[in-house]
Amino acid sequence: MKIYVVRHGVTEWNRLKKVQGAADIPLAEEGVYLAKKTGEALKEVPFDICFSSPLQRARQTAGYILEGRDVPVILDKRIQEIDFGALEGTRFKDDSGKISSPEMELFFHHPLEFERPKDGENIDDILERTKDFWQEKIRDPELLDKTILVSSHGCAVRALLQNVYQNKADFWHGSVPPNCSVNIVEVENGKAWFLEEDKVFY
Fold first, then answer.
1. CB neighbours (10 Å) of residue 192?
2. pLDDT tens across 174-197, in order?
3. How far is residue 158's CA from residue 11's CA, in Å, rounded to a whole number?
């Protein structure tokens, strides 16, 4: 099994440094461009199936990557972005690029200490649901010889890849994955390893 895990393209809220989470924000023009460039780079990859977050920025990214191909896209809420609840829509960086929200400071620098916001989730929540997705897919006998595209989000990608990373304490592994970056994972007999990490094609 080979799994290509991609983060969605850029949205207007990404550019405005707004907390996005479960808010259903579409790709910006730049995000469409990045998704199309990524699709061109992966045009020779023989995808059999795609699993996507139901949020439109992830669905659109999958659509552009798979444009012109007859590949089934299955929506799965377990790989949807972390729900920031009451924090969604707030701006978390000032004009100089400094994080201006104490909650988001924790989220980016000490994510395991990030407290669940009102009506939202914390890191443990997203780790639990992405692990459930991961274990289900790698154990599915119908997927064992398949090439799979997973279209998801920054925090959800890192949470999902905790099933592969060696250092579980380092949640971000250096950074939030770049928009339209691709992590390629090989899985065999329940063991997983990276072929590429955070690769960008633009």
1. 17
2. 999 999 999 999 999 989 999 999
3. 19
